[in-house]
Design the sequence.
């Protein structure tokens, strides 16, 4: 089969890690006789520098006509002083909105080989950790009304958190479906003790639960959830939450996997279309130095095969190859521990390719 993939490497370590994921996809293509055709487009700071805007129309068009999108990361110090609507991060938000990617799946899975890289005590992580954060991705405070006004306390700025019930229902359905395929436990995280939008969120999630009698639903406030994530993460199976709470909680959950460099994500629209992106950012501190961990992006490519292309055997192969490299002791600097084999970005990619072939 022939699959069209739009590549959006972006900024910082984005191009470093996307290059490794492409190597891995190509290895899968050779092994199974699939043709992955790539078209590389600009977004973020790279697009600002080359074309004067963070999200050129051509980038949107190419992504829309592709079967799936693989994105590295956007942003960096160079563009940090631009006005909000011109910043590289706007490109990512624009792509998510334009492509209708309302459901962001962020699996935080601890490979047993990385137990030493996880900062939690052995007894807390014993038996493994496997959590999926289902983050709403095209609504909430990220996309609500924003602006400036003068007040008696001086200039004020505001960003509105708003959720419509259909936005909550569709993400709740994704989360309940996910829970049905796993351990049938769903925690909805909100701030319903303070926020109206969270009270609506909670009541719509509770209504949706009627269609999933087998799923054990609980509600938790975000402050408590952040604490429970490090106190007793094993209590979580699937977490569903808003755009901003999901952003924060998933970075916290990433440390369960040993490093933010291990956490992949799938940003899904209705149907099979998706954009696949590591949870981490452009890491300007290590960009271009062959230090970035490419596993989050490579595991994101595996999610692409699984969710958009329905190639689950091939996706299993990539995940097994990542595990094999960890079992061999291969480690990028972010997950390094004594006695292990130090790998750069490219060497990690090569080893994963070798484990597939
Ligand atoms: P970051 O995730 O880029 O980096 C945080 C820390 O984690 C840094 O020390 C970095 O070196 C490390 N790190 C991140 N990814 C790594 C990897 N693959 N391997 C090893 N170490 C890794 O977060 P930040 O520093 O807050 O943000 C930097 C820039 O990235 C900002 O401009 C931000 O807006 C942007 N950002 C983009 C995305 C995205 O495009 N999806 C996500 C988050 C942040
Ligand atoms: C992420 C990032 C983005 C977000 C930024 C860069 C817009 O932090 O994908 O987690 O907040 O969604
Ligand atoms: Mn984030």
Sequence:
């Amino acid at each position: 089969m022939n699959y069209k993939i739009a590549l959006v490497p972006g900024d910082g370590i984005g191009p470093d890690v996307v290059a490794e994921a492409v190597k891995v996809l190509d290895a899968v293509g050779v092994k199974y006789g699939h043709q992955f055709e790539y078209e590389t487009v600009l977004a973020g700071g790279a697009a600002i520098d080359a074309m004067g805007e963070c999200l050129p129309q051509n980038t949107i068009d190419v992504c829309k006509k592709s079967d799936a999108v693989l994105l590295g990361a956007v942003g960096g110090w160079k563009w940090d002083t631009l006005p909000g609507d011109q910043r590289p991060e706007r490109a990512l938000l624009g792509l998510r909105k334009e492509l209708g990617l309302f459901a962001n799946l962020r699996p935080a899975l601890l490979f047993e080989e990385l137990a030493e890289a996880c900062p939690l005590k052995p007894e807390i992580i014993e038996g493994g950790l496997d959590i999926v954060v289902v983050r709403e991705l095209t609504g909430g405070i990220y996309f609500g009304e924003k602006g400036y006004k003068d007040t008696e306390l001086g200039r004020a700025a505001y960003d509105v958190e708003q959720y419509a019930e259909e936005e909550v229902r569709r993400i709740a359905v994704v989360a309940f479906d996910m829970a049905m395929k796993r351990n049938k436990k769903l925690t909805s995280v909100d701030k319903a003790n303070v926020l109206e939008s969270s009270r609506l969120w909670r009541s719509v999630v509770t209504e949706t639960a009627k269609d999933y009698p087998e799923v054990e639903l609980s509600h938790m406030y975000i402050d408590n959830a952040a604490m429970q994530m490090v106190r007793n993460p094993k209590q979580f199976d699937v977490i569903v939450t808003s755009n901003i709470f999901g952003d924060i909680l998933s970075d916290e959950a990433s440390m369960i996997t040993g490093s933010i460099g291990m956490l992949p994500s799938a940003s899904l629209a209705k149907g099979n279309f998706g954009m696949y992106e590591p949870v981490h950012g452009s890491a300007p501190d290590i960009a271009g130095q062959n230090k970035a961990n490419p596993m989050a992006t490579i595991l994101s490519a595996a999610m692409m095969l699984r969710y958009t292309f329905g190639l689950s055997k091939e996706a299993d192969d990539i995940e097994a190859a990542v595990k094999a490299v960890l079992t061999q002791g291969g480690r990028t600097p972010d997950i390094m521990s004594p006695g292990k084999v130090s790998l750069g970005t490219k060497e990690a990619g090569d080893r994963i390719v070798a484990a597939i072939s």
Observations:
- Residues 13, 17, 73-76, 89, 92, 260-261, 277, 280-286, 292-293, 296, 334 surround nicotinamide-adenine-dinucleotide (ligand 1) (CB under 6 Å).
- The chain has two domains: 1-106+261-357, 119-257.
